[in-house]
Amino acid sequence: MGFLDLFVVALMPVLKVLLITGLGLFLALDRIDLLGENARHYVNNLVFYLFSPALVVSQLGETITFQSLRSLWFMPVNILLTFIIGSILAWILIKITKTPPHLQGLVIGCCSAGNLGNLLLIIVPAVCEESNSPFGDSTVCSTYGTTYASLSMAVGAVYIWTYVYIIMRIYADKGADSEDTDINESITDSESYKEALLPSSKNSGSRAYSDEDELPRTISGGKLKIKEKILQSVKKFTAKINLKMVFAPATIAAICGFIIGTVSPIRKLMIGDSAPLRVIDSSASLLGETTIPCMTLIVGSNLLRGLRKSEVSASVIAGIVAVRNIFLPIIGIGVVKAAHHFGMVESDSLYQFILLLQFALPPAMTIGIIAQLFGAGEGECSVIMLWSYVVSALSLTFWSTFYMWLLQ
């Protein structure tokens, strides 16, 4: 296929996303108020607790087998690489732009965590359904594409609620500590100024002797065993992990989907036209079909907050947009091509296409939820999301076209 034909194939899904996203933004306006704050809350809960898990478990259960697992093992590794490389680029961006401490965790989160669920679940099936799609039969492509996207969403949720959650929590604590330190320093400076005007009650010689006497005792008594230090580090690390969020409904659904697909007796009971319990799988699929339109509407309604906030520097926004739309997609080509060269990824063009897209997605909407939890940069996050998704409308079209051309 020519580059122009591939461009049209890539453009159609993005246009669909833009139209439904725009509709979601329109419905969230105060004059319409069909997707106001309360409505968004309820729809978000339905998507999070019901629709998304139903889609994940039905798609994984129908298509995942022991044989297919052999070709999918690299996807969690690929997603982890997007997080690590994005974090490194974010650290460089923070140093260049001198980002304020309370926003540094937000910048790392936006650069490292892409929208691994919502957009892939929208774009991949839509690409497959195009008449001139390069991925073969539309039904087979859509089934496997949705499975890959569902697995991506589940793995991405685990990484976001462990890796990104911990980083944003650490930086939120640092930002709060720095503010407290500034306040305390101003108080201490005034107190020390007063104390400097008063005569000291102890002479310098006795003070020096006391310090020297305490030094050996402090060194000998302050030593901790290596084992105790390791245990303390582990405790601090685990204390920052929100296990409730790690085992989110989509993650639990992914585990159930793997069990249904790989355990032969269960698979025979639930999957297939002659399965006795096929009605359960059919019901889950029916619920799962509502996930994509609901997700897209919510994305649009959430972007409305970005139009009402502007408390973030243009350099930070431009840097995040550049990382997610230029640097990461280019690096992703090298990662996936190297993995294919060394035999870690099979010659499945659809699978490679999704691995490449994982590097080119805008920031995950979950970052806004985490920012809200810690009360650090929630308004700034809305602005970042707004501009990131505006730019991604163009960049996703370009990168999708280029990736399909590259995989021909």
TrEMBL record:
Involved in cellular auxin homeostasis by regulating auxin metabolism. Regulates intracellular auxin accumulation at the endoplasmic reticulum and thus auxin availability for nuclear auxin signaling. It is found in: Endoplasmic reticulum membrane. One of its GO terms (cellular component) is endoplasmic reticulum membrane. It comes from the Eukaryota. Belongs to the auxin efflux carrier (TC 2.A.69.2) family. Keywords: Auxin signaling pathway, Endoplasmic reticulum, Membrane, Transmembrane, Transmembrane helix, Transport. The chain crosses the membrane at residues 6-29, 41-61, 73-94, 106-127, 147-168, 245-266, 286-304, 316-338, 350-374, 386-406. It is a multi-pass membrane protein. GO terms for biological process: auxin-activated signaling pathway; endoplasmic reticulum to cytosol auxin transport. Pfam families: Mem_trans. Its main location: endoplasmic reticulum. PANTHER family: PROTEIN PIN-LIKES 1-LIKE, PTHR31651. The keyword Endoplasmic reticulum applies. It comes from Dovyalis caffra. The keyword Transport applies. This is Auxin efflux carrier family protein.
